[in-house]
Amino acid sequence: MSFTVGVGETVALIGPSGCGKSTLLRIINGIVPADAGYIDVGDLRLSRDTVDRLRHRTGYVIQEGGLFPHLTARDNSAVLARYLRWPAERISGRVEELADAVRLPASLLNRFPLELSGGQRQRVSLMRALFVNPAVLLLDEPLGALDPMIRAELQTDLRDLFHRFRKTVVLVTHDVTEAAFFADRIVLMNAGTIVQDGSLSDLEQRPASEFVATFMSAQRITHGGVA
Amino acid sequence: MTWTTLSFPHDISAQDDRDSEAPVVIGSKKFTESVVLGELIAGLAQAEGVRAEHRKELGGTRVLWEALLSGDIDVYPDYTGTLMHETLSDHRISDVEHLAAVLESHGVRMTRSLGFNNTYALGMRRDRAGALGIRSISNLIGRPDLVFGFSNEFIDRADGWPGLQRTYRLPQQDVRGLDHSLAYRGLVDGALDVIDLYTTDAEIQAYDLVALDDDRGHFPEYKAVILYRADLVDRHPEMAGALGGLEGVISERRMAAMNARSNVDGVPETVVAADFLSEVLGVHIEVELTTRSQRLWKHTREHLTLVLVSLFFAILVAIPLGVIAYRHERIGALIVGVVGVIFTIPSLALLVFMIPLLGIGAGPAMVALFLYSLLPIVRNTHSGLKEIPLPVRESALALGLSPAFRLRHIELPMASGTILAGIKTAAVINIGTATLGALIGAGGYGQPILTGIRLNDVGLILEGAVPAALLAILAQSLFGIAERFLVPRGLRL
Predict the structure, then answer these.
(1) What would the pLDDT profile of B158-186 be if each residue is shown by its tens digit?
(2) How far apart are CA A47 and CA A221, in angstroms?
(3) In angstroms, rounded to a whole number, what is the distance separating the alpha carbons of residues B380 and B426?
(4) Exposed, middle or buried: residue B136 (CB in 10 Å: 0-12, 13-18, 19+)?
(5) Which of B44, B138, B154, B389 has its CA 20 to 30 A from that of A91?
(6) Residues in Cβ contact with B185 at an 8 Å cutoff, skipping those fewer than 6 apart
(7) What is the rounded distance in angstroms from the CA atom of residue B195 to the CA atom of residue B175?
(8) Would you say B91 and B168 are in contact if contact means Cβ atoms under 8 Å apart?
(9) Which of A26, A68, A138 is closest, CB to CB, to B392?
C-alpha cells in the first residue's frame, strides 16, 4: 500500500476493527516495524538511526491518552521537552501556551491523570503531542472513550487546533461521521490494504467495491439508529 | 603520579602486626561439653595474656573442621573416634599415632587425650528399658516397633547409625533425626524410645536414663582432644604449653559434673570453666558475665549488620537484573530461573556449602542472605515493569525518548511500588533466615536461640525469637513509611 499526506492536510483512516488502521499509524512512528517498504516524514526516512528524530516530529495521541500516571498534567505534557533539555522557563511558557490552546484550565495542570476526567486527560495528551511543535500529528481514536457531550466539544476544539497550527494530521477512527467532520480526505482500509482513498461523497456515491458500499451503508444504519 | 606514594612494604608490615595481635579464635560444637571445653581453652589463653575469641555453637563437626583448615578458627575440641571414623575416615586410620600424622599433613596438631572418653551409646529411660527387659543393643534386634530418634549428625556418620545398624542388623525403620538436646526431651516425654547419648551428658543422670551395653563393641573410643593449627604455635608460642595443661586432667566424672552444672543447674559455661581452672590447674582468671541487655545489644547489632549489608547489595544487584530480565525476554527467563533455584536451596545447606569458599562468620552468612534476597527483588522488579500498561509504554516509545530516560523517568517510577514490595519481602525473609547465621558463627539473634535450645531454656530462646519477630514487624512498618516517600503520589491515588 502507498499513500501520501500533504503538508497541513488532515486524512482520516477508517475501516472495520482489525483492518490494520492503528497498526499503520504505529508503523509510521516506528513502534511496529514494517515488513517491507519505507516511511518518509518530510526529508527524513524512517530507520533505526532516524526513528527518534522522526518521533520528535510526530505527535501521537491514543484512545485512553496513555498518560504517565505518576506525573502531573504539567509534567506529562513536558516530558519530551525535559528530555531535550529545554530550559525551565521555556518549558513553563510552553505549558501555559498549550493549556490555553487546548482549553485546559491552568488550575488542573498540577493534577495527576487519575484526578482528571476523560476529556481533560485527552487535552493533556494533546498538549504532550504538540509540545515540541511537531509537523505531524498521529491520532488513534482520540475521542473513542469519551461520552457524546464531551466528545462533540472536543471534536470542535481539535479541528480548530489542526487548522490554526497547520498540522499534517493522520487520524484513525471507525466512525465515518467523525472522519468527515475532521477530514476532506478519507482512506478506507480493509484486511491490511487501502480499498478506497477519496472524499466522503466519493465513498458514498462511487464506492470502489462491494465492501466499500456495505461498510458505508452499515455506518448509515448505525448512525441513523443513534440520531 | 600520586599512586607511587602507596608503599607496599608498609602494607606488609601492617599485615604482620595484625597477625601477632589477632586474637586466638576458638570454635566449639553446639553441645554443652564442647562449649565448656571451648571456655576452658579461652580461659587458659586469657591467663597467658593472649586475646581469645570463642565462636561457640557452630553447626557441626564438618563446619568446625573446614573452619580450622581455612584458618577461620585456630583451635577447637574434638574426639579421636570422630576424627578417625568420620572426619578423616578416608585415611583408614588405625591408631592415635597414625591420626596425629594425618592431622599434621593437614597443618593441624592435636593434644594428647584430655583424660576422658565420651563415646556414643544408645540410651533409654530406665523404667522403660526395665519394663521391656532391654539391657544391651542386641536386645533391640527383636523390637522393630521401638521409635528411634538420633541427633542429625549421628544419623549420617559412618560410626553412627549406619554402622551400628550393620553391626547389629537392627530392623528399625522409623528413625528420626533431630537436635541432640531435643532428643532428650522426646525421650523423657515418651515420644521416642531410644536415642543416642554422649556418655558424659548430664542428662543421663538427670533424667535417670540407662546406656545400653554395646555388646558387640561397635562404638570406638572417643577420647577428647584439642585440635589446633600448626601455625598457632608460631604466632602464640605460649598457647602450646597452655593447651598441654589440659592433657589428662579431666576425668569422665569431672566432665559429666561440669556438663551437669551447666546444663542442669544453669551455671554459665564461663563460670564452670573458670572454677575448673582454678580448682584443678590453679589458674585464676577473671570472669566477665554479660548482662541480658549487653547481649541483646550485641545480638541486635550483629543481626542488623547481617540483614542490612546483605539487603543493600541485593538491591544493588537485583534491580538491574530485574531490568535486564524485562528488556530481554530470553535472558530474563534464565535470570529469574537461576535466582529461583538459589532461593530453593535450604538455608542450612547453603551456609555449609559456602564454608570451603568463604569460611565461617558474618561474611558467608551475608553472602547467603544476599543470595536469598535476590529472588523477591528480581521477580518484583521484572513483574513491576512488565505490568506497565501497554498504552503507557507505547506512549513513552512514541515520544522518542532514549531507553535510559524511559527507564529512569517512566518505567522505574511506575514499577516502584512493586519493587518496594519485593524489597520488603526480602527484608522480612532475611530477618528470619539470619537467625541461622549463628550456626556458622555469624552471631545475631540466632545465638541465644541456639543456646536456649541446647540448655532447654525457653527464656533464652525468647531472647532471640522475640527481638527477631519485633524487627520483622518494625521492618514492615518502615517500608510502609518509605512507600510514601518513594512511590510517586500519582500512583497512590
Answers:
(1) 889 999 999 999 998 878 899 888 899 89
(2) 43
(3) 11
(4) middle
(5) B389
(6) B456
(7) 10
(8) no
(9) A68
| pLDDT one-digit tens code per residue, B227-265 | 999 999 889 988 988 899 999 999 999 999 999 999 888
- A207 CB-side CA count, 13 A: 11
Cβ A12 vs Cβ A159: under 8 Å:
no
Find, in chain A, the residue whose alpha carbon is nearest to that of B492.
A70
**Per-residue cell: B96:** 592415635
**Which of B287, B364, B415, B271 minimizes the C-alpha distance to B67?**
B364
Grid coordinates in use for A5?
499526506
Q: At A169, phi and psi to the nearest 5?
A: -125, 130
DSSP label at B216? T
B414 to A69: CB separation less than 8 angstroms, yes or no: yes
Give the span between the Cα atoms of B185 and A185, in whole angstroms. Answer: 90
Q: Measure in Å the smallest separation between the Cα of A70 and chain B Cα atoms.
A: 4
Q: Which residues of B touch A66 (CB under 8 A)?
A: 391-392, 394-395
DSSP codes joined into one string, B107-136: TEEEPPP-S-B--EEEEEEHHHHHHHT--B
Q: Hey, are the CB atoms on A83 and B402 less than 8 Å from each other? A: yes
Residues B25 and B73: beta-carbon distance below 8 Å: yes
Check CB contact of A3 with chain B, cutoff 8 Å: no
pLDDT bucket at A64, cuts 50 / 70 / 90: confident
Instruction: Answer yes or no: do A83 and B398 touch at CB < 8 A.
Output: no
Confidence bin at B20 (pLDDT 50/70/90): low
Question: By C-alpha distance, which of A106, A54, A51, A53 is closest to A77?
Answer: A106
In the block, which residue shows the cell 498549550? A98
Whether the pLDDT of residue A33 is over 50: the answer is yes
Residue matched to cell numbers 516509545: B397
Average pLDDT (B183-212) is 91
DSSP string, B5-36: G--HHHHHHHHHHHHHHSPEEEEEESSHHHHH
